Amino acid sequence: MKDENVRMIRNLRTSKNKYGNPRLFLEPVVLEAGNFEVGESISYTFVKQALIIKKADESEYKVAKRKRPSWDKYRPLIDYSNGDLAMLFGTREKIDILVSDSVIVIRKEQSFDLCVIGQPRLESEKPLKKLTFASFPSGAGIASAALEDTGFFESKMGADVWDPAIETYIHNFPKGSCYFGDVRSLNPGYIPSVDVAWLSPPCVSFSSLGTLSNGVIEGLGPHFARLIMATNAKALIIEQVPSYFSSRSFAQLKGILSPIFPYWNVRILDAFDYGSVASRKRGYAVALADKESFEFPTMPALPEHRRLTVGQVIGKEWEKGDWRPIKGTTMEHLLNKGGNNNFTVEKNRTLVGLDDKRISCIIANYSKINVTSSHLRHPDNPNFWRLFRSDELARFLDVPDYFSFPEFISENLRTKLLGQSVSSNIVKAIGIELAYTLMKQRVKKAIDNRFVIPMEENSNKQLAFIL
Fold first, then answer.
1. 62: β partners
2. What backbone torsions phi and psi does residue 229 show, to the nearest 5 degrees?
3. 98 bridge partner residues
4. pLDDT band for position 126 (cuts 50, 70, 90)
5. CB of 401 closer than 8 Å to CB of 393
6. CA angle 221, 227, 228 (to 5 degrees)
């Protein structure tokens, strides 16, 4: 595997079989990353404190199959618990699974004090010409798609702990690598050097249900800091709910990184102000290692007559979907809900029509009907309504057209992944400004280097000009 590029690093714990021996369970997403197919012959070899799984011409071992109701076909699976496995791993021991084409290397989790990963290599010998970036966590990769859609960037790594997110990420980004596991266990040696690091910290601690912790006990700030430092990036982009940027977690992150990234810009932006029909107010921070003025993108206020309507965004197929009557459903209860708080229909766009020009922010639990989300009222029969479909939500978020979900990702999971994502237009706008800033830095350095007069020491140990 010396010259193989690693496609995925899966971090997990071994389990235990009924005889008390360690057990390995490799999910479909792991095997598909290595191009293993159901029924293929494979071999198991123990080499240098590692287990190597390879495709084989003939073997008693075969790739098993797995089927779920939401999948239209069988997918590959490996469930291995041979007694010899105990020579390498104990039960419930954390391991790293390195996946490349037709080869899988499994070894004990690498500790954080290792600076360089051994083989297989994670990086290509030929550097990419575009600006490169890594995402922690990457989610489904919608922010990554938005950055790539600018034409300036190329993703080299994504990381997430949730398998539907990783499955969607590698479906859209066949190049580079990804990390499937808890980022707190991500060894910096697995992280490639990139130009830009993208960070979207989990928002649970900063939502209305998590304000007591406010990032004090989550402890992710230092973990994200060490990952970002491992990238050797020249710039950092952070996206999260506005309250995150006043949290202790952000203060810890910034405190650690400020000596490396001394130049910070923080701004609260709403996607609606950038032409989107869907509101989405988020905080963004851009930090730079070198002094260069960065300006957040600005957009003049759109006149009302130039704003798109819901109908223009979702298109002519608006009739498709699960239309439900208002009477006797959850919607009737929501429409009749009163009170003086913000969770009433009067203060939210709970039902919208095709001619409306604004909807509420798309949230992760959109499929669970709630008063703060927008739903479509039937234009011909106002007594019926439905949820927006995932493809419609993607259009509201301006997700690039080429981005898609694997067929086996259910509609419910798609809406959740979209609700966890970003407004692509804002990400693209920030990405373009950042690319402009980094290109200015490179040009200035190149010009400065051209006019540096080379010097050398002469025999008297004195500096002299080279003429």
1. 41
2. -65, -35
3. 9, 105
4. very low
5. no
6. 85
AA letter at 150 = T
The whole-angstrom separation of Cα 132 and Cα 192 is 10
**3-state helix/strand/coil string of 267-295:** EEEEHHHHCCCECCEEEEEEEECCCCCCC
- ∠ CA 422-283-272 to the nearest 5 degrees? 60
Question: What was the pLDDT predicted at 203?
Answer: 65
Interatomic CA distance for residues 260 and 251, integer angstroms: 15
Q: Which amino acid is located at 437 in the chain? A: T
Strand pairing partners for 407? none
CB-based contact 171:404 (threshold 8 Å): yes
- Please give the Cα distance from 81 to 102 (Å, whole number): 21
- pLDDT above 90: residue 169: yes
Question: What's the token pair of residue 462?
Answer: 């004195």
Q: Which of 260, 176, 195 is nearest to 435 (CA)?
A: 195
Q: Vertex 304, ends 300 and 306: CA angle to 5°?
A: 75
Distance CA 123, CA 100 (A): 12
Give every CB contact of residue 212 below 8 A, 6+ residues apart in sequence: none
Token pair recorded at residue 184: 């707190």
DSSP string, 40-54: -EEEEEEETTEEEEE
pLDDT digits (tens, 9 = 90+) for 236-279: 999 999 999 998 889 999 999 999 999 999 999 999 999 999 99
β-bridge mates for residue 179, sequence order = 9, 159
The closest alpha carbon to 413, from 71, 77, 8, belongs to 71
Tokens 């208002």 label which residue?
326
* Nearest-5° Cα angle at 343, 162 to 411: 35
